[in-house]
Amino acid sequence: MTVIASGNNSTDEIEAIKDFAESKNYNIGFYADNLADFEEVATYDDVEEAKCILVIGDVLYENPLIGRRIVRAKQNGAVINSLVNSDTEVTANISDECSKGSVSEFLDANKDVPEDAVIVFNKVDDAGDLEAIKNLNCKVLPVFSKSNSKGALDYFEAKSSDEMLELLDSTKVLLVFNDDIVSEIEFDYSKISKIISFAYFENETTKKSDIVIPIRTWLEKDGSFVNAMGENQSFKAVVESDVLSEIEIIEKLN
Fold it and tell me: Which residues are 170's β-sheet partners?
């Protein structure tokens, strides 16, 4: 049995999922874009005030809140060097210099950046890239694709894509809590005997699931999440719902 948790879960839900999986001795799969946690991260103000920013990935398009800070830094005279897949990417449009190729090549070419530079990234090729980023001794801001991945890292150790494949290959029953693991990890999911999804909208994982159980949306529940800077932010339900929350479902499963 394997339980999938993700940054789509609120902090309270993550804690409940962890306790549930551990009490049943189930495996836990947590994937965070191949990224990892950093003990200290740059703030949004650090990004805006930086004189040199290295950007890996199309952060301006995929993460507009942080992208806005990069734009302001550019307006304040910052030099922006980016690693892009295409010159048409939004991030490329404001960059002073664009590179293509591997993350390791980009980091090696920029190894002499000043210590007050900031590296903003939402992708790496492998664990070696994360170590290379640490060795640059700059302020870093990993940007996850899901709102509470940073918070989930306080409870789970993120698995690499290879580790997730190994886990899925040994899984007979898969419980997926509000995630679309099928879209993220390429795997022959027909090898898994039964897939049960807890979700509030259709996705590629629910399409492959044997059972789909509806859950409350963010609008229908209270909760909290941790943003990219590590700040806890809470939210309140604005819509009433008779649908069960993930925590209520876990209580019934227990």
Answer: none
Handedness of CA 62, 3, 211, 177 (dihedral sign): negative
Read off the pLDDT of residues 102-154 as tens digits, 9 standing for 90 and up.
999 999 999 888 888 999 999 999 889 999 998 888 999 999 999 999 999 99
Question: Alpha-carbon distance 188 to 250, whole Å?
Answer: 27
Q: What is the pTM assigned to this prediction?
A: 0.87
Give burial (CB, 10 Å; 0-12/13-18/19+) of 55. buried
Whether the per-residue pLDDT at 61 is higher than 90: the answer is yes
φ, ψ for residue 144, nearest 5 deg: -85, 155
| d(C-alpha 197, C-alpha 8), whole Å | 13
Question: Which tokens hold the place of 71?
Answer: 């734009």
What are the pLDDT digits (tens) for 87-107? 899 999 999 999 999 999 999
φ and ψ at 141, to 5 degrees? -140, 95
How do residues 177-231 score in pLDDT, each as one tens digit? 999 999 999 999 999 999 999 999 999 999 999 999 999 999 999 999 998 888 9
Distance of CA 125 to the CA centre of its chain: 15
In terms of DSSP bridges, do strands 118-121 and 52-56 run parallel, antiparallel, or are they unpaired?
Answer: parallel
Task: Enter the DSSP assignment of 159.
Answer: B
Q: How far apart are CA 9 and CA 192, in angstroms?
A: 23
Task: Find the helix or strand (DSSP H, E) in which 48 lies.
Answer: helix 44-49
